[in-house]
Amino acid sequence: MSESLSFGTRLSAWRRRRGLSQLDLAGVADSSQRHVSFLESGRTAPSREMVLRLAQALDLPLRQQNAMLLAAGFAPMWRESDLAAPELTQVQAALAFMLAQQEPFPAVVVDRRWNILDANLGAAKLVGFLAELGDPAPPEGRPNLADALMAPGGMRHALTNWAEVAAYFLRGVQADALADGTAETQALLARISAYPGAPALAHGPAADEAHGPVLTMVFEKAGTRLALFTAIATLGTPQDVTLQEIRIESFFPADEPTAAWFRA
Question: Fewest CB within a 10 Å sphere: which of 121, 173, 198, 260?
Fold first, then answer.
């Protein structure tokens, strides 16, 4: 959403994006349909408390809550810190612990747009395994899992079930774009959707396609086969925009030969 949008326009857009009527939103926010209507039309200015109540009722990310407050003429409530900031020392330690605990298997810390912020040695080993396949430079010059998966080259050439994995990933980014409403996530979605083969993935998997309990990524190179599935974790109670947007993705072996390869 454009930064120039008024509070009322933003409120109406988010309400429609969430599939709520004015009456629905009023009920969740403990208000009245008339008051919500007046707020959306600009006939009434919201209090700071009402902005926050509506933002929480709409389940807005902290970044968008700040945008709503600014549009209503109030100062942002949630700070956005650099992950290396001194006040985040304990969080940094927790992330480092999680990465270390995942060894010898890969784990990475990424932001909302899948830019890699940190990684363990297991992740470095996986990258080394794929390195000779070519690694396309992300448009912003920062390692990005989305580009590594979707762009020609990189892990795509070694991923034997690329279409299935990429379709699932693309749907996840589509959901992110719908949920956070930022230009950055929308730009990421547009970029990865334009890569060769990506448009055809919008149709999803065949209805009669068999599925296991989890979607496994299968890499093959020079006679070596690695099968991995992932788990994604987030911080449970973030009160900082940066912390709400980070994810820890851990890779687990789907079979014993893969586990043995990483342990070797």
Answer: 260
Position 138 confidence tier, pLDDT thresholds 50, 70, 90? very low
Question: Domains in the chain, start-ordered, CATH in brackets?
Answer: 7-71 (1.10.260.40), 86-263 (3.30.450.180)
255's CB contacts (< 8 A; 6+ apart) are 227
d(CA 180, CA 69): 16
Characterize the bridge pairing of strands 247-253 and 107-110. antiparallel
Burial class (CB in 10 A: 0-12, 13-18, 19+), 132: exposed
Q: Tokens representing 45?
A: 């200015």
Q: Which parts of the chain are beta strand (E)?
A: 107-110, 116-119, 217-221, 224-233, 247-253
Q: Average of pLDDT values for 3-17?
A: 91
